[in-house]
Amino acid sequence: MLKEEILKEIKERGEIPFDRFVYLSLYHPKWGYYTGKRGSPLPGEDFVTAPEISPVFGKVLAFHLKRISEERNLPLRILELGGGKGFLAKDILGSIPVEEYIVLELGNFPPLPGIRHVKKLEEVPSFEGFVVSNEFFDAFPFKRILKRGGKLFEVFVGSDGDKLTEFLLPFKGELPCEPEEGGEYPLFVGWKEFLKELKEKFKGYFIAFDYGGKCKEVSSKKSFRAYRNNRIVEDYLERPGETDLTADIDFDRLFNVLSSSGFSRIRVRNQSEFLLSEGIEKAVSPSDSIAVLSLLVDMGRRFKVIQAVRE
Ligand SMILES: C[S@@+](CC[C@H](N)C(=O)[O-])C[C@H]1O[C@@H](n2cnc3c(N)ncnc32)[C@H](O)[C@@H]1O
Q1: Does the CB atom of residue 139 touch ligand 1 within 6 A?
Q2: Could you give the CA distance from residue 251 to residue 177 in angstroms, rounded to a whole number?
Q3: How much of the chain is helix, strand and coil, in % rounded to 5?
Q4: How confident is the model at residue 39 (pLDDT cuts 50, 70, 90)?
Q5: CB 202, CB 79: distance < 8 Å
Q6: How far apart, in whole angstroms, are the C-alpha atoms of residue 21 and residue 172?
Q7: All domains of the chain, ordered by start, with CATH?
Q8: Which end of the chain has less Cβ packing within 10 Å, N or C?
Q9: How much is the pTM?
């Protein structure tokens, strides 16, 4: 099991930083939460995403992509990052005619007509068109940097017999903003490398939905969460591979990483503002009303959309 694998790694090489623990928990080839034999989590099993709540989300996004494609004369070639169970892909393909749809997904992806599944960005050919994602950037490994007694510490995972334990070491790197006393900053690892690689092969329009806020907002509390069976759990060290680990996104940082990776015209808005301005009312039927409330009110405030262009 994964816990034994992690204990073995710690015994051989010493304690591991929390981002390594997240990486192994989510993406270990055999036991990872997203990549393991058990397959990706079932829709709604541990968390529910906007495309899983209702096809309305994908429909509104599809009409938005079609409008941008007409206005900017961009081919409707779409790369979806972290496509999960394929709900968004299905809804987009069911709403607008698309020239090509590629899903980048590290985990298993259900075979769907008209969709090419790749596991690595290097398998994606250079293209002009669109890059879309929902809850992708929050699924990268992250370090946890805490402020205690006026000082910054980084969380490491070590072992005590057959138990995994957490402990703190002084943090030596730099943060985009300092957490408040008692708070913790989720320092995602790998965004920059990923976006630099993406920019090399892509020209066009980028749009990503995720939860989070400004740097100060995500670092003022503990923004790291572990989910199992749709509940927040604390025993994530005990059951790695069965537990989803995630944290709020610092949109200020994602903005800066996009900008320094060669993206321009970057804009961040609330998901609700985006859905309303794109005419969500035209995509709903009366039976969608509860889902729409969730998309606009609950998720609408916590979720943001970041749009950018790669020229
Ligand atoms: C929180 S899930 C969201 C799934 C889906 N987008 C949705 O909204 O239902 C994040 C997904 O991103 C995938 N993922 C994360 N990092 C990835 C990477 N670097 N390359 C490919 N897939 C990745 C995970 O395997 C997981 O399926």
Answers
A1: yes
A2: 12
A3: 35, 30, 35
A4: low
A5: yes
A6: 19
A7: 2-310 (3.40.50.12710)
A8: C
A9: 0.95
Radius of gyration in angstroms for the set of CA atoms belonging to the chain, rounded to a whole number: 20
Distance between Cα 185 and ligand 1 center (Å): 21
Atom 23 (ligand 1) nearest CA: 82
The ligand 1 atom at the shortest distance from the C-alpha of residue 43 is: 9
- pLDDT (tens digit, 9 = 90+) per residue, 85-96? 999 999 999 999
Task: List the structure tokens of 263.
Answer: 């993206």
Residue 144, beta-bridge partner list: 186
Q: Which of 48-52, 127-131, 148-152, 209-213 has the lowest mean pLDDT?
A: 48-52
116-127 confidence digits (pLDDT tens): 999 999 999 999
C-alpha of residue 215 to centroid of ligand 1, in Å: 23
User: Residue 49 and residue 47: Cα distance in Å, rounded?
Assistant: 7
Q: Which residues pair with 188 in a beta bridge?
A: 142
59-93 confidence digits (pLDDT tens) = 999 999 999 999 999 999 999 999 999 999 999 99
Residue to mutate, 56, 105, 134, ligand 1, most ligand atoms under 8 Å from C-beta: 105
Identity of the residue numbered 177: C
CB atoms within 10 A of CB 60: 25
Counting residues of the chain whose pLDDT is more than 90, the rounded percentage is 80
In sequence order, the 6+-apart residues with CB closer than 8 A to the CB of 281 are: none
